[in-house]
Amino acid sequence: MSNQQRFRYQDFTDPKTQLVTADNNQNAHDIYCPQLSCGCLLLRTSFGTLVERPKDKTASPPNDEKSDPNGTTNSKENINWNNTNGESTSQSNVEYWQLTDMMAFENIGFSKTIEETGLKYICCADCNVGPLGYHDTKAQEKEYLIAVNRVSYDVSSLISENIV
């Protein structure tokens, strides 16, 4: 994929229009690991639906912010998980790409379930960076959530049109 151009959420001038399809609120671009040095494709175009959820579950697991969901230190790129980009106008919500079937992912990893919360954190299957999102095993409806501001996007088509 020599033509691939990847950017993080904060690199977009208008993410609501550049990352979301106008007709069905789905991801308009392939979604990749946030580490630009990792080429792991996480989710193909139009497989995730933009939703808002409370940000209390978005916090990093109870270890270091730069640790992967399995507790090992991530010494690769410094990714700021606590930036506010991707938070909705409501201070208590965050935007996510929602999937209802884990088989819709191209490549993803999960932490062990955190006993106290029932959460499984989602990470990159290739480099273990995360958490990128979570799956609440105690929730009534099955959903897998990837934070819009914790991944990168292949926007080659936008670059060729000089939109980014």
TrEMBL record:
Gene Ontology cellular-component annotations: cytosol; membrane
GO BP term, example: post-Golgi vesicle-mediated transport
Coiled-coil segments: none
Secretion signal, residue range per the UniProt entry: none
Regions of compositional bias (Basic and acidic residues) in chain numbering: 53-68
Start and end residues of each stretch annotated as Disordered: 53-89
Regions of compositional bias (Polar residues) in chain numbering: 69-89
Pfam families membership: Mss4
Keywords: Guanine-nucleotide releasing factor, Protein transport, Transport
Keyword Repeat: no
InterPro entries: Mss4, Mss4-like_sf, Mss4/transl-control_tumour
Stretches that traverse the bilayer: none
Superkingdom of source: Eukaryota
An example Gene Ontology molecular-function term: zinc ion binding
Protein's name according to its UniProt entry: Mss4-like protein
